[in-house]
Write a structure and sequence with these properties.
By secondary structure, the protein is of the alpha+beta class. The chain is built from four helices and 14 strands. The longest helix is centred in the first third of the chain and has 24 residues, at 19-42.
Length: 252
């Protein structure tokens, strides 16, 4: 710019014949050059003046708004940096990171131990009553208190132990229950060679229990469903008794 001004002044200077006029032009040119030089020498260097910025310029005297501050720009993150203007991928969002959990968080990248699995919905003790469609079975257990104890199996996410207690003992070993993706609990168990009194006659039976239960979606505290109880003669496997029982029990 300075050289352009000098060039224009020189061109005008040589076109003028008056000595006085040349003197005036020369003085004005010198003044203009002095002003231009002073203005340029006093101009502040532009750049990023924030030491925290990745493009910080220690020689800059005036901030020009170009500072780049890297960090987490997600306000929901625990390490959110309100000064950052460029995300560096460091955001920490805590939550459940296991896709099999019922409370899996798609946005979480740091597991906080809060994962809940299908088994956790059912674990607990429930007490209620049952009604069976077979008179003999219903006389034995119908209308009586029934207790379900659903117990965690270490390391399992959807399997539980199901303890079913009537006023009579049916199974010595508690069946293993499986909870599907629709939160339906199914279980089955059996007991071989059980000696019982059937209408005054001793019989050796094989007992089978199969159940399907769900939790009330509104409260998650009411266990309801059906159980099929079947007794076969141990000697020949001939079915002796089959009964469908409906049960409802409340979480304690």
């Amino acid at each position: 710019m300075l050289m352009t001004i000098i060039g224009k002044i020189t061109s005008i200077f040589y076109k003028i014949n008056s000595h006085e006029m040349k003197k005036i032009i020369l003085l004005n040119a010198l003044a203009l050059l002095l002003i231009t030089f002073t203005t340029q020498s006093c101009a502040k260097k532009q750049g990023c003046t924030n030491p925290q910025a990745s493009n910080y310029d220690p020689d800059a005297e005036e901030n020009n708004g170009t500072c780049i501050i890297k960090g987490c720009i997600d306000p929901t993150s625990e390490n959110y940096n309100p000064d950052a203007n460029q995300d560096d991928g460091s955001c920490i969002i805590k939550g459940c990171t296991d896709p099999e959990a019922v409370n899996f968080s798609t946005s979480a990248n740091s597991d906080d131990g809060s994962c809940k699995f299908r088994k956790d919905l059912f674990i607990g003790t429930y007490i209620g009553t049952t009604e069976c469609d077979n008179t003999l079975i219903n006389d034995a257990i119908g209308g009586q208190d029934i207790t379900f104890r659903i117990v965690e199996i270490p390391g399992e996410k959807s399997k539980v132990t199901v303890e079913v207690d009537f006023n009579i003992e049916i199974l010595e070993e508690d069946p293993i229950g499986q909870i599907d993706e629709n939160n339906v609990l199914t279980f089955q168990g059996s007991q071989k060679m059980v000696e019982v009194d059937v209408m005054g006659t001793k019989q050796v039976l094989d007992i089978y229990v199969q159940g399907t239960f769900t939790l009330d979606e509104a409260t998650m505290d009411i266990l309801s469903g059906t159980m099929t109880l079947r007794a076969d003669l141990s000697a020949n496997g001939v079915p002796l008794i089959t009964s469908l029982c409906e049960a409802n029990a409340n979480r304690q």
